[in-house]
Amino acid sequence: MTANTEPPGRPGYFWPVLGLALGMLLTGMAITAHQMLYQNGRNEQRLQGLEAGLQDTERLLALLKGRQDGSVPAAALASLARLAAAEPALEAAQAELAAAAAQPPQPGEPAQAEMAGLALQQAIQKEIRRLRADERQQEHVSLVLSLAGIGAGALLLLSALLSTRRREHQQADGAQHRAAELRAVCDASPVGLALLDGECRLRQVNPSFAALAEQPEAAVAGRHLTEAMPVLGGLLLPMLRGAMARGEGLPGQEVHAEDAGGRSQHYFIAAEPVQGGGTQARLSLVLMDVSDKVAVESWRDELVNELNHRVKNTLSTVQSLAAQTMRGAGQDPNRFAADFSARLGALSRSHELLASVGWSKATLDGAIEAALAPWKAVWLATGQLAMHGPSGVVVRPAQAQAMVIAISELASNASRHGALAHDGRVSLTWRMAPNGMIHLAWHETSKAWLTEASPQRGFGLRFLERGLAHDLGPGAQAQLRFEPTGLQYDVSFRAGITQPTTFTLQKGAA
């Protein structure tokens, strides 16, 4: 007699049903594992490829917009061709884009390549949505199978949810990190940046923009552009509204504005529409104060004009020096070479002086220093030259040049024919009278009895007697006398603004 091992109360088909149930459970778990581990992974790879293709399409559109010579970005097209080979749904749109990109852009006509690129973008986005929908459907199936498998599907679903949650956290953290990086770049930018809504209100600004508005950043954000920057805002408002109405940006350009105080300011502005922000129009505004740049360019133009004027005057002066020196030298080429070289040296020193002060604010003592440069060190060391007068007396460039040439002529004459050629001394003094006139005296004292120079006057004496007074301006006077003890030369003229301090050079001064 065979013992009955079946549990009491259970029919004979229990074990077959239980085996079938266990088989179904194992099958459900296998299907769930397949869907979660294989199918979802494959979909994720496809999604990554589609998202990369979407980025390639955006980069390709940017390259096509900027091309000028009709060149085709082959690398981007090749990447999209590989994506279309893996995704048959994109083959038609990719082929249309490749054909349109191969055609050169036609001025004044809609860019076919851009339209084809947008169509490819829409096709990629549609495929991404479809895959996302398939992925959600597969998760639902997995949930049902897991519940039928007495909790096995629930565990697999929980694992999937946890994995998805981790991805979401990673994506959120990455988005926050990228936003923080972008904000740091905007805050550190020396250029004013602002985001405007459709009513031209400042939704976001960076510190540089707030500085241009001369207000704290918190006080600028949220205000209307014309409230934050009344003068400039009133100038830009029609331009910005027109750009929003056209759905276009403003190309980079300079604008000029004057505040209530009459202060002139120059700005560089540019604006671009913000894409992907919903139906409300928004613009990103770039603003930079270029007043210093404009001022420098204006100063440069003035300097070039002044330089051209000076060059012309210098050439005329050199021509006059050559002609006058030639007359004084007679037929002696050696004398002409020596005299002309000395006078060119004086002219050169006057230009070095003016160049060192930017062709303005030259001083009388600076002109005297430049004129006496070849002789001063020796004469001061031997006690043959004594100089005394105020420093900081500002003279015009033409006056400085004339004084350098005149004092150089006096020094050259004194070293060759005058007091310094006969162991004498020279006293050079200048002072400022209360009426603003400058009085300069060159007095020579010689140990030998000197006679007046020959009645034939050379260039140097003619310039000292008549030319210098003319170059020093209205009211200037120059008197040249030949005394038995030495040459006496007195000059008076009206110079510019002065801030005098004592300037004295005696024996032993450097």
Structure write-up:
With 510 residues, this protein is an alpha+beta fold. The chain has three domains: 17-64 and 74-186, no CATH class; 190-289, Beta-Lactamase; 306-505, Histidine kinase-like ATPase, C-terminal domain (Heat Shock Protein 90, 2-Layer Sandwich), CATH 3.30.565. The chain contains 15 helices and twelve strands. Strands 6, 7, 8, 9, 10, 11 and 12 form a seven-stranded mixed sheet that branches. A five-stranded antiparallel sheet has the order 2-1-5-4-3, sandwiched between helices. Helix 1 (14-66) runs antiparallel to helix 2 and helix 1 packs antiparallel against helix 4. The model is unreliable at 1-14 and 497-510 (pLDDT under 50). This is histidine kinase. It is an enzyme of class 2 (transferase). It catalyses: ATP + protein L-histidine = ADP + protein N-phospho-L-histidine. Pfam families: HWE_HK (PF07536), PAS_4 (PF08448). It comes from Teichococcus rhizosphaerae.
What is the number of beta strands? 12
Provide the β-strand percentage band. Answer: 15-25%
Mean pLDDT: 74
The CATH topology annotation of the largest domain reads as Heat Shock Protein 90
Helical coverage, percent range: 55-70%
Given the structure, what is the number of helices?
15
Rg for CA atoms: 46 Å
Q: What would you give as the CATH superfamily of the largest domain?
A: Histidine kinase-like ATPase, C-terminal domain
Count of domains: 3
Largest sheet: 7 strands, mixed
Along the chain, the helix and strand elements come as HHHHHEEHHHHEEEHHEHHEHEEHEEE
Transmembrane segments: 12-33, 140-162
Protein name: histidine kinase
Catalytic activity: ATP + protein L-histidine = ADP + protein N-phospho-L-histidine
Enzyme class: transferase
